[in-house]
Write a sequence for this structure.
């Protein structure tokens, strides 16, 4: 088995990989190295630039095939291009040799990343560490600047201090981490301002201009702030701190409204100041390694696609659980609840990716078109297909875990669900009648996110006759464990070795930790990089968002209007039993709560 | 699922006759197992250990005895010594092994006699009767002797030592002739003395755990059967290799060669199990009917679809390995193949056009037996558009490793974790050692138990044998008539390169020699 030792960053992979398929495809070895100028580059290893938009570049390595790369398609305003401007001229040559890449320096470009809400939790825990990881991996363009923006008064040094203290990223143990960190921190600055002050944003603009130093300026704003100030910040940033000659993009995170209307209003408001192209709605689940791999599994293996339909799949389960509650920070959550917080976005996005038809290509628009089709083929969720729960306090081993309503930031009479299970259906030719079950909850017995595909029973099962047991229950199951401890496994029936004829279920296993020694990058790294490159595949388009809301809005309204009382479940338990009854209604058995999970 | 593995677990009508069930206690039955050729290698290394393992596992009926029969003069005690001296079975390290062994040895006896002497067998019969003590008597003869005396022994045993009131069964091992004619002749001779029901032709590969599991995989999992046809399978490879040569015992082998020794029986049997249609039930006759259908749908092998090889001497690291013809028991001018590769085709609706490649050889670089199923390319592979590489080469592959180190794995294309989009092949793995801590029983245990239970699923029926021979006989004759010279390959190598050219002819790439293989 091959091993991959060096770092791979999309932005540069085109320049590092080369083909070594001269030995007839056997014993394929490849070398990726950041010292590429010294690498022998076969003449045929060329890099192609196409003028197509929105496509990304890839390098593929097949162990018994050749290595090839195709760089992509750079859209006019991507920083990737600017980034390459160090390598080639800005004139859009269609094709060039790698060697050509070094002797040019046209209009250099810069990227400034402004983290709005820099003192917040997400910024500290995810965004800055992800940016540093990208920097460490050489994935950021040469000229970049990072600005923290928030209301608190802070100096640059204080921000740097804060960033360096909370940087607990996957890079920590690598060599040169400290040096790299110093260099990185030198690029970090802070600007204090109000979120609704155009004046403060103009000041920021000035500072940014200084750093950009006349180069082409690309600006990425990451809104790590509460939703009620999204619009203010977007307005100010757009009016007073947009790039004059490059692109300006804004990353927003959920919540995107709390129902169809408020979401539409938000979109409308954003679009007063931004084009659809400029809005990057992040769903960080789409950046998870195994969610990314879902399409690879389906579309690059022969053996899965024939099975991927109602003909063979009995049901699909999308499961998310956390083993902690709101822990004193329930204020935001209480306003939304688990359905909006997890199901309507993360789980539904995964469902759409799972169930979509084969797209025309892997381009963002093609994939998002297929996802929208799935969402639009779905029945809006019915109240009777939903079970909601809320955790109550529980004492175990002397420790008392608080109930949801014990959280001081949560109203005592809150009916907000902290758990929900739902059955959804896609009324199209591929999935008619196949239940897609979702389950999400806080304060459960474990922390996990996984996709489970349960296959139908074997028709005319030969072994049934010999056993009398109901082996129809022991169907095949494909499990994609997104977190923790990434893995893919297929449960198969197997003969227990020995003289008798006994069957049991075994796993055909792929355990990432065992197979891939490299750490898996955080979802935010991938998503930030994509946003910088203008790759929109993993971001939510507004029509996707609309379709997603229209599936959930009626049921959310009904839950609230009818004041449906959640089923209580103890903190740390497996959730309300109602979820089992919901599953039973559709003849499904939850895969994660079986004895042999 | 079912309870403990035991003779009772393998149900069959005969069971009721051969075992005393608590609800039918009228007559107690006895079982005597006579190992004819008791002093031979197979008996010592495989049969006695397997019998002991069955005894240890409580799989033998209550009243059983074991008789060794051979020409050498031995006492019971000497036989017991021989057995206990060579018993290196999987049970060795379990508790009570010694106690059990003593009890087992007490049930072992020896009778010396000629293989063609009816008189000697009559003496054996008397001894057996004595021990049976008037109980219902079932007798199993295991012929662990050279093929030229099969018929003599069967005649004597059948005429003089058959059970009067129970069943009499005879287990025979390959070779079953060396071509269609001699095989038919052997069958005809055996049938003078035995009915088809009494003949248990063993192919010990069918007793291997993963070969047994092949049907389970196919028929108890939804995910495989839809893929099991020409629509999705590009080719199937059946690979057998040994990492040693004849090592001074080539006399028998030279008369047969690798094709007869491995391909025509072991590999072909696995192929038939792999490719058969779903049987009506798991009963022996239903399965064997389906296997025969596969064999009869196959094209007889053509000379141009076969590569033969023979190993030559090779020095490596100061050590010299002998060539095949250096073996003193082998003629110096022998053309007998020690390696062969062949492409076979099944002309039925399911498999039309799918090459089934076989490869078997001695003195190669590894010791292994495996089945490899290579799937077709992904039609309209999306990732190809972005990559430009020939992803078609990186197809899915299902590997069943029969030995050593039993495993099942499925090669899939996967995204390499990281920020880029790179694909590689990973395995969905099931390594038996990791999943099942229990030792896996030897194939002979299973087969002996089946013969005792009258379960014929894993034994070869005569029409299967005929069909198997008619596929190979024309080719074997051709090879011998035309004195086709084998391609020589060094001892310990990967075999003659001709195998690659044969594969290339059918657009196949051997899965075991692809470089990524471990």
């Amino acid at each position: 088995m091959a091993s991959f030792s060096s770092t791979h960053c999309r932005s540069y992979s085109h320049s590092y990989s080369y083909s070594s398929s001269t030995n007839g495809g056997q014993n394929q070895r490849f070398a990726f190295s950041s010292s590429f100028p010294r690498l022998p580059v076969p003449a045929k290893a060329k890099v192609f630039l196409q003028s197509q938009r929105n496509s990304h570049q890839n390098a593929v390595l097949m162990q018994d095939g050749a290595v090839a790369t195709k760089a992509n398609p750079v859209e006019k305003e991507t920083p990737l291009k600017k980034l390459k401007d160090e390598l080639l001229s800005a004139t859009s040559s269609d094709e060039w040799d790698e060697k050509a890449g070094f002797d040019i320096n046209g209009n250099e470009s810069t990227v400034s990343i402004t983290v709005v809400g820099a003192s917040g939790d997400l910024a500290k825990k995810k965004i800055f560490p992800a940016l540093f990881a990208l920097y460490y991996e050489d994935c950021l363009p040469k000229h970049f600047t990072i600005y923290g923006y928030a209301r608190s008064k802070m100096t640059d040094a204080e921000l740097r201090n804060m960033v360096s203290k909370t940087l607990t990223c996957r890079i920590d143990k690598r060599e040169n981490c400290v040096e790299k960190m110093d260099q990185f921190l030198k690029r970090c600055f802070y600007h204090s301002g109000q979120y609704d002050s155009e004046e403060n944003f103009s000041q920021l603009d000035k500072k940014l201009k200084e750093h950009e130093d006349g180069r082409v300026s690309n600006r990425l704003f990451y809104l790590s702030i509460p939703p009620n100030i999204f619009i203010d910040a977007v307005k100010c940033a757009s009016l007073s701190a947009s790039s004059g000659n490059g692109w300006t993009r804004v990353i927003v995170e959920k919540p995107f409204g709390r129902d169809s209307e408020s979401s539409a209003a938000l979109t409308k408001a954003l679009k007063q100041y931004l084009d659809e192209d400029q809005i990057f709605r992040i769903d960080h689940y789409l950046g998870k390694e195994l969610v990314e791999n879902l399409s690879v599994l389906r579309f690059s293996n022969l053996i899965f696609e024939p099975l991927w339909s109602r003909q063979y799949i009995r049901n699909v389960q999308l499961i998310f659980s956390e083993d902690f509650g709101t822990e004193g920070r329930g204020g935001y959550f209480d306003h939304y609840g688990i359905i909006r917080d997890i199901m309507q976005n993360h789980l539904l996005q995964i469902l759409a990716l799972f169930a979509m038809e084969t797209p025309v290509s892997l381009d963002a628009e093609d994939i998002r078109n297929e996802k929208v089709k799935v969402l639009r083929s779905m029945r809006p969720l019915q109240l009777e297909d939903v079970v909601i729960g809320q955790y109550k306090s529980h004492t175990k081993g002397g420790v008392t875990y608080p109930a949801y309503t014990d959280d001081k930031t949560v109203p005592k009479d809150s009916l907000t669900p902290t758990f929900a299970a739902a059955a959804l259906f896609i009324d199209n030719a591929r999935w008619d009648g196949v239940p897609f079950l979702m389950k999400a909850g806080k304060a459960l017995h474990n922390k996990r996110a996984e996709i489970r595909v349960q296959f139908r029973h074997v028709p005319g099962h030969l072994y049934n006759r010999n056993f009398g047991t109901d082996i129809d229950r022991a169907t095949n199951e494909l499990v994609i464990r997104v977190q923790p401890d990434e893995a893919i496994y297929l449960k198969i029936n197997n003969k227990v070795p020995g003289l008798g004829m006994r069957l049991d279920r075994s796993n055909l296993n792929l355990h990432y930790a065992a197979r891939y020694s490299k750490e898996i990058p955080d979802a935010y790294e991938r998503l930030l990089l994509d946003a910088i490159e203008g790759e929109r595949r993993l971001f939510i388009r507004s029509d996707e968002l609309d379709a997603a809301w229209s599936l959930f809005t009626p049921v959310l309204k009904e839950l609230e209007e009818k004041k449906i009382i959640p089923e209580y479940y103890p903190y740390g338990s497996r959730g309300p039993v109602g979820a089992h009854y919901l599953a039973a209604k559709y003849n499904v058995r939850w895969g994660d709560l079986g004895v042999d999970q």
Observations:
- The radius of gyration of chain B is 24 Å.
- Chain B touches chain A through 88 residues (CB under 8 Å).
- Residues 250-275 of chain B form the longest helix (26 residues).
- The CA atoms of residues 263 and 472 of chain B lie 9 Å apart.
